[in-house]
Amino acid sequence: MKFKTRLYVTFTTIVMLPLVLTALAFCAIGLYLMNVQKGLPVAGIDYTDAAQNMREIINTTDKAYYVLRDQAAKDPSMLADLEYLTNVNTDIAKKSTYIIVRKGEELYYAGNKDAAEAIFSKLPDYGEADLSVDTGLYYDEFDKFVKQVDFLFPDGSQGSAFVVTKTNSLISKHLLVDMFVAILVILVFTSLMLTRWIHTSVFCPIKDLNVAMRRIKEGNFEYALQTDVKGEIGDLYRDYEDMRLRLKESTEEKLEHEKKNRELISNISHDLKTPITAIKGYVEGIMDGVADTPEKMDKYIKTIYNKANDMDRLINELTVYSGIDSNRIPYNFHRINVADYFGDCVEEVGMDLEQKGIELNYCNLVQPDTVVIADPEQMKKVINNIISNSVKYMDKPKGMIDIRILDEVDSIQVEIEDNGKGIAQKDLGKIFERFYRTDASRNSAQGGSGIGLSIVKKIVEEHGGYIWATGKEGEGTCMHFVLRKYIELQNEV
Question: 480 has which bridge partners?
Fold first, then answer.
């Protein structure tokens, strides 16, 4: 069952159930009131304090009673006039009230003959009515309320006029009208309030949520909903907001990734075009016979070879970076002794630097038992890329590279410093960005691909560390990266 259908069923039940219960209550109250009224001693009651239904009965009877009483006081002979009695009875008959007139012991006039014959023998005798107070008699077996007016006929006979009212009819009629009006007002008011509440608390929030989802479908992730709403609607709003923010973040990341991919393609095209153009030119020179001496031929072939190596190195760097960037390269982390590992790395790179005439200085200031968690192969790429970058931009007659391992309490700091051409202050914060190259490197004959240091940064961050650069243009550059120590927890004995 749909949520909307559930609401309609609930609404119908809420309306119909009170209606049914009210009808049952009406019947029960009506019967109760009539039974209560039947048991009341009518004579001597202060009618200002009586129940509303009983006052209605008395008021209905009083009209005819006062007419007959006044007439008996002024001209009792009129009470012997059947035409006059008929006129008075006609005025009150529609109100379930009629007149009985008795002459002596005989029935003289009856506004309702059948009803009068049933109650006639029970009527009080002449003179039993207390004319000093407006009292009446209630006949339980007949459900009749009676008021009496005594008078004398023109011939001197004793006469009594009785005003008789059907109590059950009046009670039922007025009770029905009052309760029906009350029920109608209650139901209309309740329905309006309930409809407004459901519309405000259910349909409006659902409409807002529907609008928001359409905005999401259209690619608009800026349409926000309130998250301080309580209940199930509030949960839906919060879930929507969480989804919206995630989709927005994901979309932004996707757009950024696409932008970087376009930049990647552009840079790859540019970086590959340069060696390809050179190779093509030298090959054309060989084909055209420009390399007409063994020396020129040897030079052309070496150049082609070097350019091919540059292309191979670029492709390898792109492959490595692509694998790292997409998390396709698994890391094999091990506990590594810092002194042993970096000592081996320095020994390995030292021989290459010696052949190039670059002096290497190594200083280890950490404890011999210091251990870090790292991938040996990936960390070796970090060191080799940094040193390769330093060698590439070395412009001093006597090159120098210093490697220092510093103790930082809960971590180690590795510093690799050179005395090369350095990096301008404006470029220090950007050199780890993919394909970023300084103006000096762009103009250099040995300008790299611009992804070597981005690979370094990615690997260091995957190890839970961080990296930065310091230096001064014309004096050299120092690369710093930090790795956390491995601390083995000892169980207390």
Answer: 415, 468
Are 146 and 162 within 8 A, CB to CB? yes
Q: What DSSP string runs through 110-150?
A: ESSHHHHHHHGGGSPPTT-S-TTS---EEETTTTEEEEEEE
Contact (CB, 8 A) for 181 and 117: no
pLDDT in tens, 230-288: 767 777 878 888 888 888 888 888 888 788 777 767 766 766 777 888 888 888 888 88
Closest by alpha carbon to 356, among 388, 308, 384? Answer: 388
In the chain, % of residues over pLDDT 70: 77
Residues facing residue 373 across a β-bridge: 335
Higher pLDDT, 459 or 32: 459
CA 332 – CA 320 distance, rounded (Å): 16
pLDDT tier at 1 (50, 70, 90 boundaries)?
A: very low
Best CA proximity match to 478, nearest among 396, 432, 417: 417
pLDDT for 388: 87
Q: Which token pair is 410? A: 């809960």
Both tokens of 216, joined, read: 């999401």
Query: 260-265: long-range contacts at Cβ-Cβ below 8 A with a sequence spacing of 24 or more?
Result: 260/434, 263/434, 263/435, 264/434, 264/435
- From the list 98, 156, 80, 159, the residue with the least C-alpha distance to 125 is 159
Q: Record the pTM.
A: 0.46
391 and 465 Cβ atoms separated by less than 8 Å: no
Domains and CATH numbers, the chain: 1-220 (3.30.450.20), 231-320 (1.10.287.130), 332-484 (3.30.565.10)
Closest CA to 244 of 267, 227, 261: 227
Secondary structure element (H or E) that encloses residue 463, with its range = none
State the Cα–Cα distance between residues 411 and 414, nearest whole angstrom: 10
Judging by DSSP bridges, how do beta strands 399-407 and 358-364 pair with one another?
parallel
Return d(Cα 266, Cα 280) in angstroms, integer. Answer: 21
Region of 45 please: left (phi>0), alpha (psi -120 to 50) or beta.
beta
Phi-psi region of 44 (alpha: psi -120 to 50; beta: other; left: phi over 0): left
